[in-house]
């Protein structure tokens, strides 16, 4: 979202302050010309900062050369971004250096000022402005040199100073320079991340001067899927404090829970207290009340970037941002007799907060820390439609948070563990019992925990028709001609935090016969491997982030078969980072296969990436099987069925014959022996 804002007078034009030093433009390293991107060769990034009462001033100078045609689009436009509530901006100079001659463009500079709300569709409004300067008559080969001064007056925490800069870029740069002049009585704290660079420190009267100069740093390749706690490039934090208590002291007074509420909201809280005597149940009901009834809109303009609105104002307007909703929820819990406080967090980089120096700008989110007995709960009031009770609630998991209590200090939020699948999909195929009948497919999907919360939001924001169409498109790619024969059936057990979905399909007989589909029938758990990142391994140095714990189960049952089918050879894929376990079973008419995929770690170290990527490739192959379900077992050979009575008669006859052939001669011999006279 971009719209015109204020007049040209918002950005001033004037000379640089007397305390600045204009340094010579360095030359680019010719050996790195093949690493230049977008037609821009960067020559200088120079930041000079001085302390003043109530804030500080920052002079920034940028110099670059346009070396190719693509650089004209980027290099002929300059954007100055600022917050008018705390920034006063002056453009000090704008020059073009062409063939050694300096062309001054400052006098002819005109500003187009816009309010660019990048995340307006998400309900986020930060009030920042962009002053755009279109530099006329810029040519390939020109050097553009401009400088600005920002007078910065913090609205909150006026005594807090924080500055961070990168010590290496993705592209070649001739010189990165940072110079900070600060009172010697207020020594600055310095924390390096991904670099061992140290400043040159000197004195100037009552001030200390910190200077960093980095000439021709080697361009760094920024890798994707890196964990937040792994430094993608070298950087330095410089701050007025190393104690998080300083941040708490600056901001906590604005987040004290209130005790008075508008009558209608107070009545709702009192009703919760009466109906739910157990503290844990009161916590859940109050959380749902704030999550579901206060819509999310962030008016983070001016002091609103850090200071929440009064809960009564939030209730009256019916909307609030994370700060507003967190304070409202914390206040509601306190009224219900539950210990609660607001905590600051960062959605994307929260796992690396302990690697940075304290600063308000370290945070972009506010949540609530509640405590009942010895149990701590991390609640996010912006997670509307969240399910679960206290024992199975999907708690906020952003790494570290800073509770705004008197103790001051980062706290590590517990990482959730999945002991059972959070998503289970069961596909049940019924082959036709007689020619001409269709094949039927019923799909049962069950979502639990955080995945149930996500599915509940998806169902609320998407029509069932649209969702059903998306499911049908998925199955149509595998089974052309398949048709949906019933509406989606949804069952939401919010307290149990389980969402179930049932899909029903039919595949006509002609579609089953077409293209020998029944003879080449696919069964697969294609979605299982889609969530595993597969970044390139070429030149990679950093680990791979696997994200939040992942545990999925997919099963396929095929019925009404004419033969006994066996599964593929079981080759379970188990590594320290990911596991796929496969099983199958069968009867004379039914075949069932099941896959369980689970991540076992949050990240894969760089030394194990090759093995990990091989396991992901193996997983993608192992979850796709194909069968000829037209196969019929051949008839078994005819076997005569024995008759017990017949067998008994045969035994008697045999014994009689045996007696006849053996017993009679013996009897005759005995008789003959008796007839012989005795010998003398």
From TrEMBL:
Gene3D superfamilies: 2.60.40.3140, 3.10.620.30. The keyword Transmembrane helix applies. InterPro entries: DUF3857 (IPR024618), Papain-like_cys_pep_sf (IPR038765). Pfam families: DUF3857. Residues 54-221 form the DUF3857 domain. The keyword Iron-sulfur does not apply. The chain crosses the membrane at residues 651-670. Keywords: Membrane, Transmembrane, Transmembrane helix. SUPFAM superfamilies: Cysteine proteinases (SSF54001). This is DUF3857 domain-containing transglutaminase family protein. It comes from Mesorhizobium neociceri.
